[in-house]
Amino acid sequence: MVVSLEELIKRSINRMGAVHPSLKEYTIELIKRCYSEGIHIQISSGFRSKEDQAYIYGQGRPNFIWNGKKYGSKGSIISNAAPGTSIHNYGLAIDYFLVTDDGNKSIWTVNENWKRVAEIAKSMGFEWGGDWTSFKDYSHLQYNKGLSIAQLKAGQRPIFPLIKVDDKEVTDTAKIMWGKTELKKGQIGKLTILKPFNLWTEKEGKLVEVRILNPGEEYRVYNYRELHGGQYNVGDNHWVTKMDGYIKYETPSKAVLEQLNGK
């Protein structure tokens, strides 16, 4: 039995984590385009915290210490990006791999299908690590459009044009747009980030910082709770704390909701 497109997307979303919202949409479209050609891919990694990156950078560097803690381990070096210097740390990169037709086995061979995925991704604006002249990273795709790490640290983010499907641009008539954000069922509102602000996840009843959200970014809100001074759920187990001056919360108009529901 052939693995379903929905299953590949579900698995990939679970592994992407808190990537940039537009990158998430681009990645889902990439999975769809590959599937239409009989190529089945999954995402193995997306957003990484700086601590996650420290463990990855530390592999093959047994004596590596970051922020006073040892992260080094034995083995082969798998990354030259120290914490804070990887595009993954800014939610703008993903790693992919192939799976068998039934979806039960991973394929890590850089074959023609693997290269075809890269071609499709590059046509969408991604940069492929397999094109790098040194330290080739064949599973890596990033969407920073030439922005440097210094620019990303300063809060700059790339522009994501509307995705084209079957050579036809997806316009506002195909999507219900609310500002820069596509409105989706289950959404109760949206947040606009006004100042750099924390995105949190909850583990064992405690808040853990995921990454910094940047001014101008918009996020769909699916739920609200009174815990921790009031928090908005922006998908999965990710929360933004209510704080005046740092975020702006809005609810959709009745007209927009009627358009979404086809009334």
Provide tags for this entry:
single chain; 263 residues; alpha+beta; 5-stranded antiparallel sheet; 6 helices; 19 strands
Describe this structure in words.
Mean pLDDT is 89; it is low at 166-174. The longest helix is centred in the N-terminal third of the chain and has 16 residues, at 21-36. The protein contains six helices and 19 strands. Helix 1 packs antiparallel against helix 2. With 263 residues, the protein is an alpha+beta fold.
Radius of gyration: 19 Å
**Euclidean distance between termini CA atoms:** 39 Å
How many helical stretches? 6
Report the structural category: alpha+beta
For the sheet with most strands, the description reads:
5 strands, antiparallel
Overall number of strands: 19
Strand content: 25-35%
Task: Give the rounded overall mean pLDDT.
Answer: 89
Spell out the blueprint of helices and strands.
Elements: H1 5-16, H2 21-36, E1 41-45, H3 50-58, E2 65-66, E3 69-70, E4 93-99, E5 106-107, H4 112-123, E6 127-128, E7 140-142, H5 149-153, E8 164-165, E9 168-169, E10 177-178, E11 181-182, E12 189-193, E13 197-203, E14 206-213, E15 218-221, E16 223-225, E17 231-233, E18 238-241, E19 247-250, H6 254-260
Antiparallel strand pairs: 1-4, 2-3, 4-5, 4-7, 6-7, 8-9, 10-11, 12-15, 12-19, 13-14, 13-18, 16-17, 17-18
Helix pairs in contact: 1-2
